[in-house]
Design a protein that fits this description.
Blueprint (H helix, E strand, L loop, with lengths): L12 E5 L4 H10 L5 E5 L3 H14 L4 E4 L7 H13 L6 E4 L14 H29 L2 E6 L12 H20 L5 E6 L3 E2 L3 H5 L16 E2 L1 H13 L4 E2 L3 H12 L2 H13 L9 H12 L4
Parallel strand pairs: 1-2, 1-4, 2-3, 4-5, 5-6, 6-9, 7-8
Helix pairs in contact: 1-7, 4-5
This protein binds NADP nicotinamide-adenine-dinucleotide phosphate (NAP).
NADP nicotinamide-adenine-dinucleotide phosphate binds next to helix 1, strand 7 and helix 6.
């Protein structure tokens, strides 16, 4: 198959969710030289305004719409949609990026935290697509960048629910990508490995968990590299990309590992965490701390 012709993002109107930090902020920075308009959404309005100011200093022509919202709440999406109508912005690039993680045993998750992750990673993620795609198809052009994760390619214990939300992203992205053929709208799913952002700080339930999450050094890529590679892939209309050579190789292998083999690997690697009585080390710590009367 021949190499796809690269589209440019020159003059585009991009809506970036999760723009107050990490990948979202970096998408805004890298799109700013080409975009005509950037719509920045996240809950922390002060961060969005700081970013807008930073971008305006270097790129005077780009229109920036700061659109703070809690996308996990139904009224959050509606508020941004209304603002876009008022500002007469026709979005032709969606960076569907806002997402949250939760690291730890599923049955010990905090209900409010779990609900909010599902509302953001699944519900808001889907509703944005439902709202924007018909407009893009009517205009015969548009680009969607869905931020998934390498964790969405196969089940991941301790990240079970988060990985399941990203498996949803993976499945929906491929289904839509096929449905969009011939409409002039392209969809690229990005499946990063580990990226140095605030993600892990928020995903960790306790500070000591930070040591355990993120994976080995070769799985890490910088936000700059992830965004550069994502824009390049989206510009070429590639359906899926994992930025970085080694993370990309691992993602390719991970996608094809049979679940039965993965089960053996996971069981062996998690065996060290189990005490002879079959009790998880973490569980024992939990019980001991509870006995001491200290909150987790
Ligand atoms: N970092 C990694 O290793 C990694 C790996 C694979 C995939 N990913 C995915 O990459 C995406 C971006 O994450 P990141 O690494 O850039 O982490 P991050 O720095 O924590 O960024 C997450 C962004 O989502 C926003 N957000 C969180 N809850 C929100 C809500 N309820 N409503 C609106 N915005 C909300 C946050 O802003 P506010 O807090 O201001 O709302 C922030 O801007 C996520 O989908 C994540 O799953 C990350």
């Amino acid at each position: 198959m021949g190499r796809r012709v690269k589209q440019s993002f020159r003059g585009c109107s991009a809506w970036i969710t999760g723009a107050s930090s990490g990948l979202g902020a970096e998408f805004a920075r890298q799109l700013a030289p080409e975009a005509a308009c950037l719509v920045l959404t996240a809950r922390r309005e002060d961060r969005l305004r700081e970013l807008a100011e930073e971008i305006r200093q270097h790129h005077r022509k780009v229109q920036i719409v700061v659109a703070p919202a809690d996308l996990a709440a139904p009224e959050g999406i509606e508020a941004v949609v209304d603002l876009l109508a008022t500002e007469r912005v026709e979005v032709d690039l969606l960076v569907n990026n806002a997402g949250a993680g939760d690291f730890g045993l599923f049955y010990r998750s905090d209900l409010a935290r779990l609900r909010s992750m599902l509302d953001l990673n699944v519900k808001a993620f889907t509703l944005l697509l439902w709202w924007l795609l018909p407009q893009m198809i009517r205009r015969g052009r548009g680009c969607i960048i869905n931020i998934g994760s390498i964790a969405g390619l196969r089940p991941v214990p301790y990240y079970s629910a988060y990985a399941a939300t990203k498996a949803y992203v993976h499945s929906l992205s491929h289904g839509l990508e096929w449905e969009l053929a011939g409409t002039g709208v392209t969809l690229t799913q990005v499946c990063p490995a580990s990226v140095a952002t605030e993600f892990f700080e928020h995903a960790a339930r306790r500070p000591e968990d930070l040591k355990e999450i993120g994976g080995p050094p070769f799985m890490w890529t910088s936000p700059e590299q992830v965004v550069r590679c994502s824009l390049e892939a989206a510009g070429r209309g590639k359906p899926q990309v994992t930025p970085g050579f080694l993370p990309g190789l691992c993602a390719a292998i991970f996608s094809y590992v049979p679940i039965s083999l993965l089960r053996i690997v996971y069981r062996a690697s998690l065996a060290g965490k189990r005490k002879p009585g079959g009790e998880l080390a973490e569980e024992r710590m939990f019980v001991e701390k509870q006995r001491d009367g200290r909150p987790l």
